[in-house]
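Write out the bound-state structure for adenosine-5'-diphosphate.
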Amino acid sequence: MEKPKIPDNEKQRLAALKTYDILDSLPEKDYDDLTLIAAEICDAPIALITLIDENRQFFKSRIGVDIEDTPREYSFCSHAINLPDQLMQVEDTSMDQRFVDNPYVIGEPKITFYAGVPLVNPEGYAFGTLCVLDSKAKRLNERQERALKSLANQVMHLLELRKKNKELELSRKKVDAYARETEEFVYAASHDLKEPLRMIRSFLKLLKKKHSQQLNEEGSKYLSYASDGVKRMQMMIADMLEYYRLNMNELTAEKVDISKLVDEVSAFYKREHQDAEIKHSGLPAINASGKDLRMVFENLIGNAIKYRKAENHPVITVRAEANTGGDWVFSIADNGVGIPEDHLERIFGLFQRAHSGKQYPGTGIGLAICKKIIEKAGGKIWVESKLDAGSTFFFTWPENV
Ligand code: ADP
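---
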């Protein structure tokens, strides 16, 4: 018997093989299908996908044998990988010095015929083979050889795909971890900003209270700008913390009576906006986190009042109907100023606004919060609007959250 020669590039070859994370993996149907076709086409009782590790040959897929691996020194395929661009065929092992006294030739499964196509990766490393074996001496015809080569190519494609999927999964995990880290950083930084801002605001108040007589008109104006800026920043930080809090919270569900919830939200707003008329009809009880859903209605009804037209009192209608997919579709319609067409999608992004802060104060976070809550539950949010006529915000909420 002749022991197989160790390839010159053995160290790199083994390192490359490890990157496929395939050794000792469980059987997979895609590979088994290819071995089955190989056995059928070559009319052989045994077909294998072998991978040559340091000291053994592992069978990724096997037909006609029960064992999972064999020692490398007895492996036919270890000979085959030394000629990576050729199909190795042994028509009769009893006539071949390399294999005549091989334990798998003398003993079970009494290999007499072998044909194997090396599995070569794009960098040129041969990992193993797709091979067929028989206890009878024979020779593959040209068509069988061609088919076996094509199937070996398919095995290599599967291996490459597996590697790409693993890499993709790894980068997705890295991206997720990075995004989480960033969120945590923003959350912590926003939280830490609250205290110094509170301090600035109280000193600005003190300055106004105790020293305003020393300031001229321009100085007082600057002071009030500074206070407004700080107030706005406090609002933004509070909203940002709310936005990131949503990322960190798990979704909880309870039965929420939307009609009652909308009444409560309306009562809250009507204290300050007595002329607002808020109607609703057919609102169901749904499975949701009550706290999160309240935030959605607070934002949407609050906006419907805020972006009102100066000349008429706000009329807001909240409705719900079940769509054909069994989800609830809620709508909140107003008779306000409307939204320019080119902003209809953008306004759901963080800090995106379609109206000026002077006329309509805000942070541009409310709708991003709504979107996050709704999408987390598996729903969607969108808006239809006509300038000067009003807007209708729609969102879907799956029946089973
Ligand atoms: P904010 O109201 O704090 O600016 P939002 O995220 O709630 O932030 O809204 C984003 C933008 O969408 C608003 O700045 C406004 O331009 C527009 N918008 C939201 N709701 C309405 C509405 N009902 N009518 C008109 N414009 C609206």
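---
The CA atoms of residues 47 and 63 lie 5 Å apart.
The chain has a mean pLDDT of 93.
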